[in-house]
Structure formats: structure tokens, C-alpha cells
Amino acid sequence: xxxxxxxxxxxxxxxxxxxxxxxxxxVVDLFVIGRRPHEPSMREVSxxxxxxxxxxxLFGIALWVxxxxxxxxxxxxxxxxxxxxxxxxxxxxxxxxxxIIMTKFSVPRQYQQTALMIGIVLAxxxxxxxxxxxxxxxxxxxxxxxxxxxxxxxxxxxxxxxxAEDEEEYEENKLIKFVEHHFPATKEYHGTKLLxxxxxxxxxxxxxxxILTLGxxxxxxxxxxxxxxxxxxxxxxxxxxxxxxxxxxxxQLYFLIGGLLQRLIYLxxxxxxxxxxxxxxxxxxxxxxxxxPFINGGEHIDVAWLEIPIWVSLTVIVGTLAVTAVVSLxxxxxxxxxxxxxxxxxxxxxxG
Length: 352
Description:
The chain has 352 residues and is mainly α. The protein has 12 helices and 2 strands; from the N terminus they run H-H-H-H-H-H-E-E-H-H-H-H-H-H. It has one domain. It has helices at residues 12-35, 42-66, 76-104, 109-140, 144-162, 174-182, 206-230, 236-248, 250-256, 258-261, 267-288, 310-344, and strands at residues 195-198, 201-204. A two-stranded antiparallel sheet has the order 1-2.
């Protein structure tokens, strides 16, 4: 197997530059938000979201044109776009849970940007760890693809079975419950402060619990998203940058389409199909690279159709997201119209 950096689309220098630029953008963003907590206007979030999306598209085009194919990434540009779209669509689904968390903890609108931003920083750190652990495992053991594939297929089945119902409920994990029961906390928000000192005692604030909830929740989301993107590219640099661009615009997307999220009623089913498709793709790849002695005598199964090309994956991803969005919006619009008619009664034509 190739080393993590030796056969990647990015040299160690490019890795360093990417990480420095990412950290710089996050620090500036945190500094600006920290100085002036506020609920962003539609114009502000639209401008910032367009910037991040445009940057991701330019980055993908640059990879498509200039990056040389290699063992881990035969088609860097298409693989980046496939990974970025998949991560972005999974992130949009995660926004349902973020909305519920913000509502559950009654986070004031002017502080939600800060909570989301810190949550995104924590998400990037945790996903970076997952990415490098996954890359190391894949480089050493090809049978890891069997585990990733089976996990994604199981996740797809669970997501399809639950449908949109799981978005309406949120149960705190054990860590959050432990913190709430064992750490003294204030009932009121104190701006964006995580800790305060009151009567000589150090107390946590509701903002601390909110950020911890967002961070641990995204850790669970990463269990789905990291195996999914490794089903589209094996290059850790493409996995990392796809996650960066997906998370960078997440805060703006939260404020921009908060109401629209409720209309994407079939998003869970579309994502279930995508995760199932990528899971099958991973199983096929595992069979193609097979080294397990109890499968085909430990020999590779060298059948051409077992390797699904990236252009097929990209077509399936774009097509699934487009169909899911269009059908969701059409059905939700008809449902809203029907509900309105039931409340107000059918129109009666008047005669002169």
C-alpha cells in the first residue's frame, strides 16, 4: 500500500498551506463573530455562502484541470465534487438536528452564530482525526472496506426506515446528561461565555452545554460521512478538503434555509439511497481488492463491473439530490395548499 502522503494529490507542503489557510479563515470568522454577536441578515449569509460555494467549485475545477491522476485518486476533480456534494447533502440533513438543539436549549438568535461556529471548529478537528485514522486503516488493511460498506448499508436501511420521523425527536446523549447532572450551571445565558464565576464558584453556562451537544452530535454524524466519502475517493487530502468546504458554508446555510428544511420531506430517503449506493460500491471495491482467505480463497475478484467509475457515482449523486429536492418541494407545496384549504374551506364561486 502507498503511504498517506507519498501517493496523494497533495504534497506535504500543500497540506500545510491548506491547514494554515483553513485555520486562518476560522480564526478571522471567530474573531468577527466574537466581537459582534448578532443574527445575520439574509444578504450577509447569502454573500458568505456564495463565496464558500464558489470557492469549492473553483477548487474542484482546479483539481480537475491541473491535478495528476494517481493510485489513490484516478480522477481527483470528479472525486472531489462527488465527495463535496455527498458531505454537503449529509450536512444539510444534520441541520435538522441543529435546529432542534437550538430550540431545545432556547438559544437566543444573536448567539446561535457563535454556537454554530465553535461547533464547526470542533467538527473539523474530530473529522480530521477520523480521516487520518481511516486513511491509515485503509492503507494497512483492504478488508476495512467491507466494514465501511456494511456499516453504510445498515445506516441507509435505518435512515430509510425512520424516514423524516427521526428529525422530530432529539434525545440527549449520555455525556450531555452527565454534564447537566454533575456540573453546576447557570439557568441564564451570559452572552457567549462558556464559564462564569458567581459567588466565588465556577459555573458552566447553557452555551457550554449547547456547544458540547453540537460537537458530540457531529461526532456521530462523522461516523456516517467519513466512510461514505472514502467510498468515493481514497485520497485523504480530497476527503479532508471536501469536508472543509462542506462545513465552511454550514453556518450560513443554517440561517438561509431554516424554513426550507421543513419542506425537504424526502431528504432522508434520498440520503439513504446514496449511502446504500456508496455502501455497495465499497463492498464491490473490497471484493476487487480482496485479501480475506475465506472469500474466494483470498484471491482478488477481478471483474470489471465491480469497480463503479467515479463519473457514474457523480451522476447518481447529482441525480438523486436533484430528484429528492424537486419531489420534496412539489409534494410539500401541494400538502400546504391542501392543509390551507382544509382550514379555510374550499373557495366558493359567486354569481352576479
